[in-house]
Design brief:
It contains no helices and 19 strands. The protein is mainly β.
């Protein structure tokens, strides 16, 4: 399914502040994590993964999630390689294709080949088994970003949604917990995923506000102030880097010399336990 989108797609969520005690408002923070800091693994032959959070054998109790986000993996799969059938449940798995092609097939009857500019939301619900492979006959690796989000709707049947976003600068709503027919459905009512593209040296479009925001730079680079105003230190994030943002941090973002493409998670509550 292919759906065009524009900067005004979707509606803003009601702003909430991070839990910090009655009447208190903590200063925002922009926590920059470089791509070299990611945990590196090779889960299968021909597969390379860089993990932003604790994952499998890479366990750090201080780095298990941010907001409602549980995983953000940079994946590269060589021609002919891939993941054999494996099972997931009660997780929103969101995949953005950077280059190449990824063949997806699951035991609920969904089969597709995803290419650059395609986003897939797989709501695993009560449980689903799937494979992910670089298609037969491919001559180049496939590179993609895969993110796992905690849902707040449980016990539903699995589902898969696809959309392709054309090239072009601007702010595009890819998936949202507040369905409006123009974005893929997320089973988390207060989260949304945005695609942001801007040409060289240009300010980014006005970004949605939220207590928790997570930026993953897909291509190019972005410069920003850590907090608004002259007291904000200048930083720059390049492809593969990420920024974990609370409050009003990440001010005045501007594309670098090669422009920028980034994914932005807007999240209004953190992971819920129990």
């Amino acid at each position: 399914m292919s759906v065009d989108s524009s900067p005004e797609d979707g509606q803003a969520f009601e702003p909430l502040e991070p839990a910090s005690g009655p009447g208190r408002k903590e200063r925002g923070r922009a926590d920059l994590r470089r791509t070299a800091e990611r945990y590196l693994s090779e889960p299968a032959e021909g597969v390379t993964t860089r993990h932003a959070f604790s994952f499998s054998g890479h366990y750090d109790p201080k780095n298990t999630s941010f907001g409602a986000l549980l995983a953000c993996n940079e994946e590269t799969i060589a021609p002919g390689a891939g993941y054999e059938a494996h099972r997931h449940s009660e997780t929103e798995i969101v995949t953005w294709i950077v280059s190449g092609a990824l063949a997806h097939r699951d035991d609920a009857g969904h089969a597709s080949v995803l290419r650059r500019g395609t986003v897939q939301v797989q709501s695993t619900g009560t449980g689903i088994s799937h494979t992910e492979r670089n298609p037969g006959g491919a001559t180049e690796p496939v590179t993609f970003v895969q993110m796992w989000l905690q849902p707040d709707e449980y016990g539903s049947a699995p589902g898969v949604g696809l959309r392709t976003v054309p090239d072009g600068d601007g702010l595009t709503l890819l998936a949202s917990g507040r369905p409006d027919g123009r974005a893929l459905r997320l089973r988390r009512s207060d989260a949304a995923l945005w695609l942001v593209r801007a040409p060289a040296w240009m300010p980014l479009p006005e970004l949605p506000a939220a207590p928790y925001r997570y930026v993953h730079v897909v291509a190019g680079s972005v410069g920003y102030r850590t907090v608004p105003g002259p007291q904000g230190g200048g930083r720059s994030a390049a492809a593969g880097d990420s920024v974990r943002i609370t409050g009003d941090a990440f001010a005045d973002p501007t594309a670098g010399e090669d422009g920028v493409e980034l994914l932005l998670w807007e999240m209004h509550t953190p992971v819920q336990y129990g």
